[in-house]
Design goal:
2 copies of one chain form a homodimer.
Chain A lengths: L2 E3 L1 H18 L6 E6 L3 H16 L5 E9 L11 E8 L8 E9 L3 H13 L4 E9 L11 E5 L7 E5 L1 H4 L3 E5 L1
Parallel strand pairs in A: 2-3, 2-5, 5-6, 6-7
Antiparallel strand pairs in A: 1-9, 3-4, 8-9
Helix pairs in contact in A: 1-2
Amino acid sequence: MPVVMDADRIGRTLTRIAHEIIERNRTLDQLVLVGIQRRGVPLARRLAAAIHAINQHEVPTGALDITLYRDDLMRHTVGTQPVVGRTDIPFSIDDKRILLVDDVLYTGRTIRAALDALIEFGRPTSIQLVVLIDRGHRELPIKADYVGKNVPTSPSQSVQVRLAETDGRDEVEIQE
Amino acid sequence: MPVVMDADRIGRTLTRIAHEIIERNRTLDQLVLVGIQRRGVPLARRLAAAIHAINQHEVPTGALDITLYRDDLMRHTVGTQPVVGRTDIPFSIDDKRILLVDDVLYTGRTIRAALDALIEFGRPTSIQLVVLIDRGHRELPIKADYVGKNVPTSPSQSVQVRLAETDGRDEVEIQE
């Protein structure tokens, strides 16, 4: 079970992404962070803290819960129906540039559903995607703007992200 | 008004993309092409012809009409409402791997709307994106799988794709 990122590496990676976000967004004024439940939420909070540590700017941070529910479990399809619940975005996203944060980017289905949910929820100017791990095997033309680490995987493997807030420790492990 | 692609270049590029499609899709059996109106449709038909010329495989080809309609024209937002009309997909897209074809990739809004329309329309296994021109300035985390040519532009410029079927000649021009 290879560990592909340990706590140090995760910390350094999030700091690097915070610098990239600052560099690639001329002004931080309209930026907001939205983490996808479950582990995207602590990642979004850590990015907000890292951005604040660098330049004292507070980026509002919210949470979006996307549960993919297949209307036909036997069928492999991109047309999964998102169920949106426990969403906690306590600010308007109108005219905001959203940084959507998730732990692992895989087929792209969750992200497509999240884009729909955000656009249902308000009128953002743009949506950028931040992921800790890109494991490949996309089934939709979705791409992350900020990637912590590209981890080539086979479809039979799984990528387990553990974070102190949700799992007691920071670690990314590939499981066979 | 610089011409960035002439007829020869467009022809060679579509042949190259046809080869890439064959190379990257182990089997062509479940593949279908769907062009976005207006100029994605002749591009999809030409790709089907190019694939047939290479290996005698017939890829079913359909057309999707996405008109973006802003509920508030004064506001710059990714939450445009797609209006789907004149769609002509005379085959089931269930369990199919769709190659979605458009002439120019820009903000990503049209593509997001097209993904929604396709997923509304059936249950595809996957959706890949083919574009003749990627002009940059994305506002959504959308990426093309096959790109004819990357053309850096400023937001004030426009990219005009002309095709024999719709415009009497093949040419891609940047307009100030």
